[in-house]
Amino acid sequence: MPDLNPLRAYAAVTAAYWAFMLSDGALRMLVLLHFNSLGFTPVQLAWLFLLYELAGIVTNLAAGWLAARFGLAATLYGGLALQVGALVALAQLDPSWGIAASVAFVMAVQGVSGVAKDLAKMSSKSAVKLLAPKESGGLFRWVALLTGSKNAVKGLGFFLGAALLALAGFRAAVWSMAGVLALILLAVVLFLPAGLPGRMKSDEAWGGWRSQDARVNRLSLARLFLFGARDVWFVVGIPVYFQAVLSDGSAEGRREAFFLIGSFLALWIIAYGAAQGMAPRLLGAKGQPEAETVRNAIVWAGRLVPIPFVLAGAAWMAPAPADWLTATLVAGLLLFGFVFAVNSSVHSYLILAFGSAERITRDVGFYYMANAAGRLVGTLLSGLSYQFGGLPLCLATAGAMALASWLAARRLAGT
C-alpha cells in the first residue's frame, strides 16, 4: 500500500459503512412497524426478514472470494448500489396487493438488501484488518471503533425509520432514503482513496472459501448462537409485544407507539454500540495476550446466559401486561445489550486476530456467514416462539441460544 493513507482510507470506509447502516436500521423499522400495523401475524412478520438473513449466508460465502478477486472497494460500492436498488423497488409496493403477494415481494426486496448489507459489512471489516496499526492493540481499537460507531448509527436509523413512518408515511420514507443513499454512494466513489487492498492473485481458486483454522470455525459457531440469542427477541417478539401494550388501536395511538418502540430500539442499539467501543478499555486489551482475550470471550458468554431466562420468568409470572413488567423488560434488555456488546466486540477482534492476512476476506466471509445463519435462526424462532408461546417462550428461547453460545465459546480454550 505505498500510496495509500491508512487513516484516510479507514475514515472513508467507516463513513460509507455508517451511511449504509443508517439506511439498514431505518428500513428494518419501516417494514416491521408498517406491516404489523396492517395486521400481519408474528410468523408472517418473521417471513419478511427470512430471505434477508438467508441472503446473508449465501453472500458471505461468496463475498470473501469476490473481494479477493475484484478488491474491497468494488464490493463496498456494490453493497451500497444494491441497497439503493432495494429501496427503489420497495417504493413500488402496492397497498392493494393481497397478503401473499405483499409478503413475497417484500421478502424478495429484503433478500437484495441482505446481499447489500453483507457485502458492505465484509468489505469494511476486512479493510480494517489490512489498514490497522499492528502495535499496542491497534487492531482491537480500530475494530471496536468501527463496530461501536456503526451500531450507534444503526440505532439512530431505527428511530429515523419509525419517525419517518409516523410523519411521512411508508412510500415517502423509502424514496427519501433511496435518494440520500444514492448521493452518499456517489460521494464515496469520488473520495475513497485509490489503492484499498484486498485483492488476491488472479489464480486463486473458489474452493478455498471455508476456513481451515479450527479457531475460526469454533468462533463462528459461538457467533451463530450469540446472534440467534439476540434476534429471537429483537426481530419480532419485543417490538410486537410493545406495540400491543403501548397502542390503544387508534391512529394517534399507533403513531405514539411507533415513536416509543423506535426510541427504545434506537437506545438499545446506540448503547450497545457505545459498549462495544468501550470493550478494549474494559478488558484491558492493550498488550493483552491472545489467550487472555479467549478467556474473556468464554467468561462474558457465560454472563449473558441468565439474563433472558430471568426476563422470561418475569414475563411468565405477570398475569397481564403491567407497568412493572415493561420497566423490567427495558432494564433487563439494556443489561443484555451491554453484555452482548462485550461478547460481540471480543468476537470481532478474535476473528481478525485468528485470520491470516493472505485469506482474510474469506475467513471473515465464513465467520459472517455464521453470523447471518444465527440471525436467520433467531428471526424464524422469534416469530414462531412468540406466536405459540408469547413473550415468555420467546425470551426463554433466547436464553437457550445464549447457553449454546457459551458452550461453543468454551471450545476455544482447547485450540
UniProtKB/TrEMBL annotation:
<feature type="transmembrane region" description="Helical">
    <location>
        <begin position="180"/>
        <end position="200"/>
    </location>
</feature>
<feature type="transmembrane region" description="Helical">
    <location>
        <begin position="156"/>
        <end position="174"/>
    </location>
</feature>
<keyword id="KW-0472">Membrane</keyword>
<feature type="transmembrane region" description="Helical">
    <location>
        <begin position="97"/>
        <end position="116"/>
    </location>
</feature>
<keyword id="KW-0812">Transmembrane</keyword>
<dbReference type="Pfam" id="PF07690">
    <property type="entry name" value="MFS_1"/>
</dbReference>
<feature type="transmembrane region" description="Helical">
    <location>
        <begin position="390"/>
        <end position="409"/>
    </location>
</feature>
<feature type="transmembrane region" description="Helical">
    <location>
        <begin position="296"/>
        <end position="318"/>
    </location>
</feature>
<dbReference type="GO" id="GO:0022857">
    <property type="term" value="F:transmembrane transporter activity"/>
</dbReference>
<feature type="transmembrane region" description="Helical">
    <location>
        <begin position="70"/>
        <end position="91"/>
    </location>
</feature>
<dbReference type="InterPro" id="IPR036259">
    <property type="entry name" value="MFS_trans_sf"/>
</dbReference>
<feature type="transmembrane region" description="Helical">
    <location>
        <begin position="324"/>
        <end position="352"/>
    </location>
</feature>
<feature type="transmembrane region" description="Helical">
    <location>
        <begin position="221"/>
        <end position="242"/>
    </location>
</feature>
<feature type="transmembrane region" description="Helical">
    <location>
        <begin position="257"/>
        <end position="275"/>
    </location>
</feature>
<protein>
    <submittedName>
        <fullName>Organoarsenical effux MFS transporter ArsJ</fullName>
    </submittedName>
</protein>
<keyword id="KW-1133">Transmembrane helix</keyword>
<dbReference type="InterPro" id="IPR047769">
    <property type="entry name" value="MFS_ArsJ"/>
</dbReference>
<feature type="transmembrane region" description="Helical">
    <location>
        <begin position="364"/>
        <end position="384"/>
    </location>
</feature>
<dbReference type="InterPro" id="IPR011701">
    <property type="entry name" value="MFS"/>
</dbReference>
